[in-house]
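Hi W., the magnesium ion complex you wanted:
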Amino acid sequence: MKIFSVYNIKGGVGKTTTSVNLAYLSAAAGAQTLIWDLDPQGGTSYYLCVKPKIKGGSEELLQSKTRTMAQLRMTGYPNLDLLPSDLSYRHLDAQLAKTAKPTQGLERLVAPLAKQYDHLFVDCPPGLSLVTENVFQMTDVLLVPMIPTPLSLRAYNRLVQFLVKRRTKKLRVLPFFNMVNLDKPIHRVVTRNISEKHPIFLKNSIPESTLMEAMGVKRSPVFTYARDSIEAESIRLLWQEIMERDKA
Ligand SMILES: Nc1ncnc2c1ncn2[C@@H]1O[C@H](COP(=O)(O)OP(=O)(O)OP(=O)(O)O)[C@@H](O)[C@H]1O
Ligand SMILES: [Mg+2]
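Structure:
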């Protein structure tokens, strides 16, 4: 099972939107796919119309690996399941801190899922916490959506510094731009020649668009209501590039 986590220290940059759309594409291509809503805000659960409720809350979830299995939900989309979150996830940090291996608790939880799924997408909460360190520990590919502004680049550099210090072994970091609007001079400046300056950045990006925003109203991936749009195509190209880079 390959683990893709969608993460940024910053909030509101498109982590949830991207997680849902990429997981949908992965599942539509036939891969057994699970999406884990790791954010107490429950955005992924909302987009996929699954009730955000964990029986016994995150405390019970952490206590036993079999609990994870019991919490899996079908989404109604072929090959796509969801591990929903609820508000109890706000205590995850404190609960992980009490365990014997505080940075490995989540990795232990997902291990039994490897037999069942080809891809796991983790929709992460913003911030840098013990939960995030758990994510870094278990992830194969860290996807970092960012809005093209100098502050976003700065936050990204901070993240890289942190990861270098932690020497997270297997983690591949793939940053990309979301909500790109080339009518804005600042977006033009930041995105210009980015792949020459920072070859690690994905070449494909997602445009700023009301069609993407509409996911919040439609409560479904963009492909279900605008499959032939430029926006849908931009995510297909992004996913293709992610898979190519992962193989390289
Ligand atoms: N490409 C886009 N164009 C326009 N709006 C977008 C785009 N991507 C996401 N949005 C909107 O931006 C807002 C934030 O998106 P999203 O919830 O995916 O971000 P997030 O990083 O998961 O936020 P949080 O840190 O709160 O979890 C939402 O209202 C969403 O509809
Ligand atoms: Mg989110």
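The beta strands are 2-6, 33-37, 73-74, 80-83, 119-123, 141-146, 172-177.

W.
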